[in-house]
């Protein structure tokens, strides 16, 4: 499949990869009875993240997959910290998150338009 077709599924896989990366980070803070369980969850979520990321590359360019994965990871990690661990989020964090989302949209659209022009 080329980078312009099947993008919806590709973005779904990239978002899933980002969530799993965030879950790997979140699992390190969980109050589990054994340290081994934390490592097991980190490994599980990272392996799942890589599987999702590889699947996203089947229908997206590496740029689209990477920035979508990164943005999802960043935003979901920050929100999880806020809701689950009562960490504060400054207005600068929200401004940065908004700029990341805008950047992802711009990069995704420009990457698809560039691909269409070269075909």
Automatic annotation (TrEMBL):
Tell me what topology the record assigns in the membrane. Multi-pass membrane protein
In the UniProt record, does the keyword Transmembrane occur? Answer: yes
Report the locations given in the UniProt record. Answer: Membrane
Q: Which UniProt keywords apply?
A: Membrane, Transmembrane, Transmembrane helix
Lineage, top-rank taxon, reads Eukaryota
GO CC terms for this protein?
Answer: membrane
Which residue numbers delimit the EamA domain? 17-108
Q: What is this protein called?
A: EamA domain-containing protein
Query: What is the source species?
Result: Arachis hypogaea
């Amino acid at each position: 499949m080329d980078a312009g077709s099947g993008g919806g599924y590709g973005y779904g896989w990239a978002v899933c990869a980002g969530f799993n990366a965030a879950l790997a980070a979140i699992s390190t803070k969980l109050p589990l009875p054994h340290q081994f369980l934390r490592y097991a969850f980190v490994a599980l979520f990272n392996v799942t993240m890589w599987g999702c990321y590889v699947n996203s590359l089947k229908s997206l360019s590496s740029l689209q997959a990477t920035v979508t994965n990164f943005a999802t990871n960043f935003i979901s990690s920050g929100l999880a910290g806020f809701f689950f661990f009562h960490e504060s989020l400054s207005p600068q964090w929200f401004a940065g998150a908004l700029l990341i989302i805008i950047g992802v949209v711009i990069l995704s659209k420009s990457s698809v338009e560039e691909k269409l022009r070269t075909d």
